[in-house]
Design goal:
49% of the residues lie in helices and 11% in strands. The chain is built from 8 helices and 4 strands, in the order αααβαβαβαβαα. The chain has a 4-stranded mixed beta sheet with strand order 1-4-2-3.
Length: 210
């Protein structure tokens, strides 16, 4: 319309019209038809259990440093099948959007490993990315435990990644609240959230002891 962009921004600011930030604009450009996933709701009891299990797996085994992808790696095909079912059933991710990356020792048969993981995960080989092969460590138990290497299942979507991170925080809050209710502050592996009542109490006790 032959109007300078600075003028458009000035008008938007004057009339209180919100603008997308750069991240939102990039996401919209990559997904012009909207989100490539659809969260199921409401969930049945079985689906709630599946969601809780999958979020727990992602919490413990997922790659959370990556802010643009939901990724889970493991050598157990049953565990990864649970996560794939979660992504497709609960999150509504289209199966064609799923990707797989394998990490294998050099002495593992590549063709056999690809066929194994494709069959176990019900994901076609066309959705497998380039395999990473690492030097073998000689004789050892890894030969039986990692016969087909480690598979990483992932889907690229920053919004879904942010949503899943929020679920992890919700479950963490529920776990901490449950410990507080039963008065079990000394559960092995339990770390009170910074700023919580338990955290404040522990800090106060330390000061008194000093």
């Amino acid at each position: 319309m032959d109007v300078p962009w600075r003028t458009v921004i000035s008008w938007m600011q004057r009339y209180g019209i919100p603008r997308r930030n750069r991240s939102e604009a990039t996401y919209r450009k990559a997904n012009p038809d909207g989100d490539p996933f659809q969260i199921a709701s409401p969930l049945s009891l079985e689906e709630e259990r599946l969601k809780a299990l999958a979020v727990g797996l992602y919490w413990g085994e997922g790659t959370r440093r990556n802010t643009i992808s939901v990724r889970l790696a493991n050598s157990d095909p049953l565990l990864l099948r649970v996560f794939v079912r979660f992504l497709t059933t609960i999150c509504g991710v289209q199966p064609a959007k799923l990707r797989v990356h394998l990490i294998l020792h050099e002495d593992v048969n590549l063709k056999r490993a690809l066929e194994f993981w494709s069959r176990q995960l019900a994901i076609p080989l066309s959705q497998f990315n380039k395999t990473t092969q690492i030097p073998s460590r000689g004789r050892g138990t890894y030969r039986t435990r990692s016969l087909y290497g480690t598979a990483s299942v992932y889907v690229h979507n920053s919004k879904l990644r942010h949503l899943l991170a929020g679920w992890v925080e919700q479950y963490a809050h529920v776990a901490q609240s449950a410990e507080h209710v039963i008065g079990n502050d000394e559960v092995a592996g339990s770390i009170p959230a910074v700023g919580s009542i338990e955290d404040f109490g522990r800090r106060a006790n330390k000061v008194q002891h000093v």
